[in-house]
Amino acid sequence: MNLEMFLEKLKKGIVIKMQGAAEVKINEVIKNNGFCLHGLTITEKDRNISPTIYVDDMYQEYIQGRPISEIVDSIIVLYHKSRLEKNINMEFFLKYENVKERIVYKLIDYNRNQELLERIPHVPYLNLAIVFYYMVNEGPFGNATILIQNNHCRIWDKKTEDIYKDACINTPKILPVQIKGMDEIICEMMEKQVMEEDPGMAEKIMEEVGEIPGERRMYVLSNNMKMQGASALLYPGVLQDFSKALGKGFYILPSSIHEVILVPEVGDEEPKLMEAMVCEINETQLDVEEVLSDKVYYYSREQRTLCLCEG
Asked: Which of 8, 39, 106, 206 has its CA 20 to 30 A from that of 53?
C-alpha cells in the first residue's frame, strides 16, 4: 500500500470511529528547505480549530507491520489529548495592531526554499532569506508560531518593509541573544547527563573538563530559547561587539537554523575545508528542515561587514 492509499485508509477509519461527528482532512505541509510532511486534522462540528497530527512516521510503522486499525486508534487518542476544549477567536489576527508586537524574524536558505518564498514576505540576505512569523506567548497555544503569508499582508494592508521594521524591533527583545563558549556548552551537556545518571560524579567531571585552552576557542551564537537562534546574527551590534571583544574578525559556521558557531580568526583558516565540514554535518547529522546553509561566512572587524566566504 502506497502513502496515498494509506492516508485514505486512515481518513476512512477515523471517520467511522468518530461516527461521523468530525470532519477529517489530510494536508501536505511544506516545512523549511522544501521538507514535506502529511498532516491530518480532525475537526468536530462544534470546534473551529484543531491540532495537526503528522502521520509520516506512522506510515513507516505500518510498513513494518503495525495494523492500520491500531494506528487509527492511536490517532484518535492523540487527538483527544491535544484538542482544545474551547473554541478560539481568531479574529484578532485580522488586525495588524493586534499582532505587530509579536512578529519576529528567522533565517532560512534562499535557494532551498524557492517554492515557499513565493507565498511569504521575505527579505534577501546574502544567500539566505529573512522571513517572519507570529509568536504566541500565552493561552492554549503555548509557544506556537504562525508563519506570515502574503495573504496576511494583504489583509493587513502592509508591505514587507512594514513587517520587517517591526520584526527588527521585536526579535531582539522577545528572543534575546545568547553567546556561550563551546566548552561551556559541552560542560553543561555533560553535567546534565551525569546528574541524570550519577549525580555524585558531576562535580568531579566539571573540575576536570575546565575550559578549552588556546586561541581556537569557539563560541555558539543563538537566543535564550535556542529556537531559530541563527537569526541572532542579524541583531544590531551583536557581531560588531563580539569582534571588538575578540580584537579580531571571525568566521561563522551555520550549525543549524537554531544556532551558528563563531570561530575567531587565527590566520591559518581554510574556508574550503570549513565549508566541506559544514556540508558533511548538514548531510549526515541534521534533519532536512534543520539545515540553514552550506556556506561559511566571515565578519571583518575593520570593515564591520558580514560576507560569504567564496574559498
From this structure: 106
250-256/259-264 β-pairing: antiparallel
Q: For residue 260, what pLDDT is reported?
A: 96
Tell whether 112 and 131 lie within a shared domain: yes
Residues of the chain above pLDDT 70, percent: 85
- Select from 99, 241, 214 the least CA-distant residue to 167: 99
Same domain for 38 and 140, yes or no, is: no
What angle is formed at CA 283 by the lines to CA 281 and CA 286, rounded to 5 degrees? 70
Are 136 and 212 found together in one domain? Answer: no
SS3 35: coil
Q: Given 31, 56, 82, which residue is the final one in a domain?
A: 82
Q: Is the pLDDT of residue 203 over 90?
A: no
Residue with the bigger pLDDT between 296 and 48: it is: 296
Total count of domains within the chain:
3
287: which 3 cell numbers? 534533519
What is the reported pLDDT for 21? Answer: 82
Q: 114, 147, 174 — which closes off a domain?
A: 174
Whether residues 205 and 300 fall in one domain = yes
To the nearest 10 degrees (0 to 180), the angle between helices 56-63 and 68-82 is: 150
Q: Which residues pair with 128 in a beta bridge?
A: 109, 125
Q: What are the grid coordinates assigned to 9, written together?
A: 485508509
What's the whole-number mean pLDDT along residues 207-230? Answer: 73
Shared domain for 195 and 276, answered yes or no, is yes
